[in-house]
Design a protein that fits this description.
Blueprint: H1 5-19, H2 21-43, E1 47-52, H3 62-70, E2 84-87, E3 90-94, E4 106-110, E5 121-122, E6 143-148, E7 153-158, E8 161-162, E9 169-170, E10 175-180, E11 185-191, E12 203-210, E13 217-223, E14 228-233, E15 238-243, E16 255-258, E17 261-264, E18 269-274, E19 284-289, E20 294-299, H4 300-303, E21 321-325, E22 335-337, E23 342-347, E24 352-357, E25 367-369, E26 380-385, E27 392-397, H5 400-405, E28 415-421, H6 422-425
Antiparallel strand pairs: 1-28, 2-3, 3-4, 4-5, 6-7, 7-10, 8-9, 10-11, 12-13, 13-14, 14-15, 16-17, 18-19, 19-20, 20-21, 22-23, 23-24, 24-25, 26-27, 27-28
Length: 454
């Protein structure tokens, strides 16, 4: 009996299914997951730049990598990306040493690399990363987040802490490190004075303000566990610590339920952002604790005036104040502000990001969720607005609660870098500076205190 080509193909597929049913079903399942992810991406204004099931690093040789795995210097399941930053043609990724087996704590990958899951290249080179078992505090120990200024410099906060989630060890003093991105050469390494580091401090975020020139620069670093700010002056090569009651967490907002996991984070001041195009006299630092629904602000002029903090700082407490709140489940990690004055912020409890036009009151009617619930964001841990002419917002999604309190499935995508064109993602929304929202309707502003029912 003769069969057509289509009948022959059908017989081959049928026999394959009978012989390798499990393999066939597994393949179909993977195709479905990939297609579903691509469909979600096409429906979203967020673009998947990179994604990983697990992280790998670029070792000098394959033998070096195998040795690192064998001796425990590299344990793939213990590496999670945290911070994200963009500089033309490069992405910077931080991997804090939460657990053993993190070989390097700051790395780069090429933007628009050929691989969707490229291995990380330690920055600036392998030799600049210290060994926690034999610490050299002149090297990088555990970097949490970075900031890139308009003078083409990369600033980072190195916490000096290892095993923060298991048995916290402050093996080196926290330090600020600055690199020239034109040459990748070290410009500054500044260790915090012991008086500015408290027991169980965790310095985890950094923002940078530039004044009249590149030397007139100040870095603001948040101490998330001991509720303070450290302000560093580049021109003076000095720092001072600032405390305020608005830096503390709100116990009501400290309870999180994400991915079916319930946990409590009493994290204080965390997210910080500075509007880039304001004059120094009008410039403000916007900030919020992680365990909070509120947003706060304070004048930058106040923060950078060192003599004010050498005397009775309590007199300045009234200048730190709340500007509004995001509502229940409105906890946020990091934020950033565009050149047009639009703030973008993470919504960690909602696997989303939001926006706010800083020219308008900080009320919920002026806050906008920007992405649909399509599963691309799985705990937005870090967010950055780049310095390009046509700006983008960049997001690091890393499933951190699952890593900390459960077990990641390394057969699935666990980490993603996402980006969105700012003009497109806020177009015709309440955040759009070009949108006046003059529709003739009347409105009223209702003030509701954090914690009240609404």
């Amino acid at each position: 009996m003769k069969y057509s080509i289509f009948q022959n193909l059908f017989v081959i597929i049928y026999l394959t299914v009978l012989a390798k049913k499990n393999v066939f079903i597994s393949a179909i399942s993977q195709i479905y997951k990939y297609t579903n992810a691509q469909s979600s991406a096409s429906e979203s204004q967020l673009e998947i730049v990179n994604e990983w099931k697990y992280l790998d690093f670029v070792y000098p040789t394959f033998v070096d990598r195998q040795k690192a795995i064998q001796n425990g210097d590299f344990i793939p399941k213990n590496n999670v990306p945290l911070g994200i930053d963009y500089f033309p043609n490069r992405l910077f990724i931080t991997t804090p040493r939460w657990k053993n087996g993190v070989p390097a704590t700051l790395s780069t990958i090429s933007y628009l690399s050929k691989e969707i899951s490229p291995a990380l290249k330690p920055y600036p080179k392998w030799e600049d990363h210290g060994n926690p078992e034999n610490p050299d505090c002149s090297k990088l120990i555990s970097v949490y987040r970075t900031a890139i200024d308009k003078c083409h410099r990369l600033w980072l906060i190195d916490s000096g802490i290892v095993n923060a989630t298991i048995n916290l060890k402050q093996i080196c003093s926290p330090k600020i490190v600055v690199y020239d991105l034109s040459t990748d050469q070290l410009l500054v390494r500044y260790d915090f004075p012991k008086s500015q580091v408290k027991e169980d401090s965790l310095h985890s975020n950094i923002v940078v303000d530039i004044g009249k020139n590149c030397e007139d620069a100040h870095a603001i670093v948040s101490d998330v566990w001991r509720f303070g700010l450290v302000v560093y002056s580049l021109s003076k090569n000095r720092s001072w610590r600032i405390t305020n009651y608005n830096f503390f967490p709100n116990p009501v907002a400290s309870d999180f339920t994400i991915d079916g996991l319930n946990f409590q984070w009493l994290d204080g001041i965390f997210g910080m952002s500075i509007a880039p195009n304001q004059s120094r006299k009008d410039k403000a630092l916007y900030f919020h604790p992680m365990a909070s629904f509120k947003e706060f602000m304070v004048s930058m002029n106040l923060l950078i005036n060192e003599p004010l903090w050498q005397s009775n700082s309590q007199e300045n407490a009234k200048y730190f104040f709340s500007i509004g709140d995001r509502g229940f489940n409105g906890q946020s990690s990091t934020s950033g502000i565009s050149k047009t004055g639009v703030m973008f912020f993470t919504q960690v409890h909602q696997n989303n990001i939001g926006c706010w036009n800083t020219a308008r009151p900080y009320i919920r009617a002026n806050l906008k969720k920007l992405d649909q619930d399509n599963g691309l964001i799985q705990f937005p841990n870090d967010l950055k607005v780049d310095n390009e002419v046509n700006q983008n917002v960049w997001i690091m999604s890393n499933r951190l609660p699952v890593f900390l309190y459960s077990q990641l499935d390394f057969g699935e995508i666990n980490f993603r870098i996402l980006k969105a064109d700012i003009n497109k993602i806020i177009n015709n929304t309440v955040c759009d500076p070009m949108n006046t929202y003059n529709n003739g309707s009347k409105s009223a502003v209702v003030s509701i205190e954090e914690g009240q029912c609404y």
